[in-house]
Specification:
- The chain is of the alpha+beta class and about 475 residues long.
- It has 2 domains: about 5-295, 4-Layer Sandwich (Penicillin V Acylase, Chain A), CATH 3.60.60; about 370-475.
- Helices cover about 35% and strands about 20% of the residues.
- The chain contains 11 helices and 20 strands.
- The strands form 5 sheets. An 8-stranded antiparallel beta sheet has the order 3-8-9-10-11-12-13-16, with helices on one face. A 6-stranded antiparallel beta sheet has the order 14-1-2-18-19-20.
- Strand 12 and strand 13 (about 180-185) form a beta hairpin.
- Helix 9 runs parallel beside helix 11 (about 425-460).
């Protein structure tokens, strides 16, 4: 149940569009940097779901492309039995950003889903767009072609928000194994939240409209099933989706951002941070936070993602440049909340006796470092136990840190650009890595120090709660 938000460039103070959101899965999350890679002509990759998934299917292989793009992404270890590792958001070297967001299909379609379904799953589609797309529209075409050629292995319906500097597209992939999907273009005047992803009225009376795309049988299948009457408006959400339209949380955040866009100063980066962080939308289910400035003609190294390793209510956003050499160990995959790790060891004794499944998938060296995810969850629980007292203090702190980082990020980007123009890309990469790593570590230090302070104050002012029902601010979804 992830969250995505697109802000068109005509609404922003800097004239840059933004794609933001978070993943909403009960598992570990970690930050990954994938290099540009070349592949053999006959290379193939596994996709799909297994018989153990909530909606079962079969794994299959599809051809790999000759070269995949460098990209940053957030991965995680579990959702509805789909094979890990999974991904639902990121940015590639071409400036294409992706958010994966659930979107329930109508029960009739879910019931039609073959038990031996094959083809890419929702995470496969997000990853393949990051690896292959050069524009947002290219991402739509990639998803459409993959579904047409190989099918789609789903868990009940899904969607993707794909964006570049010029435009964004909402793509809804419907359940049922019938190759049904629809895409809507969002231009520079758009403000669109997805939770769940939705597309409403589709102008089927004018199939030449370039801002809506769908397969040839999209309308006829619905009419064959008796879900749409010819000559009436075609509401994709009502016909193929959950029929609920824009959920209350979507209506609220879209209205909030529209109001901010109407100010003389329009929407700033701090406003986008707020939209991902606000406690009305963000709690323990938010696995991380992500804000992507959709930059146009820019050296790939200077593209960036503003990232939090836990829900942004409990951490400051930190700029992570695509040109870094590596992700700090503290922000990589740790055992905390990783699926299957409760039955594994960082010890080879059982594995050497013929039980390789008992060996942890997390390297011992990584596990010996601090976990930014674990630190963030501890802080979030301290904040939420007595949110009336502690949360305003933390939110003010994050805003102050981010105000400083916005200025520092701009200076570092200019410095790295000078190095790149001078023919010193390795020095630029070193600078970006040092800056990003230092600020991620500083954010982790701050989270741990604030948590230590709040635990002391909690013990003396309130005592540690042991009630089974957790406390948290009221959320709209």
């Amino acid at each position: 149940m992830s969250y995505g938000l697109y802000i068109g460039r005509n609404h922003t103070a800097d004239g840059i569009a933004y794609l933001a959101g978070y993943g909403d899965e009960p598992s570990s999350h970690w930050l990954e940097l994938l290099p540009r890679c070349r592949h053999e002509a006959d290379a193939r990759i596994p996709v799909g779901v297994t018989p153990q998934a909530d909606l079962p299917g079969r794994m299959s292989e599809i051809p790999q492309v000759s070269e995949t793009a460098r990209h940053l992404r957030v991965s995680y270890s579990y959702y509805k039995g789909v094979p890990a590792p999974l991904t639902n958001g990121g940015l590639n070297e071409h400036g294409v950003a992706v958010r994966d967001i659930w979107s329930s299909s109508r029960p009739d379609l879910v019931a039609m889903t073959p038990v031996d379904q094959t083809g890419p799953n929702y995470s496969d589609l997000a990853r393949l767009v990051l690896e292959r797309a050069r524009t947002a529209r290219d991402g739509v075409d990639i998803i459409a072609d993959l579904i047409a050629r190989h099918g789609y292995a789903d868990y009940g319906g899904n969607s993707h928000l794909i964006a570049d500097a010029e435009e964004a597209w909402v793509v809804i992939e419907f359940s049922g194994g019938r190759g049904l999907w629809v895409a809507e273009r969002l231009g520079p005047d758009a403000i669109r939240a997805s939770r769940p992803g939705y597309v409403g009225l589709v102008p089927i009376e004018d199939p030449t409209r370039a801002d809506f795309l769908y397969p040839p049988h999209f309308v006829s299948f619905a009419q064959e099933q008796g879900w749409h009457r010819p000559g009436t408006p075609f509401d994709a959400n009502a016909v193929y989706g959950d029929g609920k339209g824009r959920w209350a949380g979507v209506q609220w955040i879209e209205a909030e951002m529209a109001a901010r866009a109407g100010r003389p100063e329009k929407i700033g980066l701090a406003d986008v941070f707020w939209a991902v962080r606000t406690e009305r939308l963000t709690g323990d289910t938010a696995g991380y936070g992500q804000v992507v400035p959709l930059l146009g003609a820019e050296p790939e190294a200077l593209r960036l993602v503003w990232h939090t390793q836990v829900g942004a209510v409990a951490a400051p956003f930190v700029p992570v440049f695509l040109g870094i050499e590596s992700v700090p160990e503290e922000y990589r995959r740790h055992r905390y909340l990783s699926d299957g790790e409760a039955a594994r060891f960082l010890d080879t004794r059982h594995a050497e006796k013929g039980r390789p499944e008992t060996l942890s998938a997390v390297p011992q060296g990584i596990e010996s470092t601090r976990s930014a995810g674990l630190a963030g969850k501890r802080l979030l629980n301290l904040l939420f136990q007595h949110h009336e007292t502690f949360l305003p203090e933390a939110l003010a702190l994050w805003q102050a840190i981010e105000a400083t980082l916005i200025g520092e990020q701009a200076r570092i980007a200019r410095s790295a650009a000078v190095l790149i123009q001078a023919g010193e890309p390795d020095l630029a990469a070193h600078l970006l890595t040092y800056f990003t790593g230092t600020e991620l570590q500083r954010a982790l230090d701050t989270m741990e120090q604030l948590a230590q302070s709040l635990e002391i104050r909690t013990r003396h002012l309130f005592g540690i709660r042991t009630e089974p029902v957790p406390r948290a601010p009221e959320q709209i979804w």
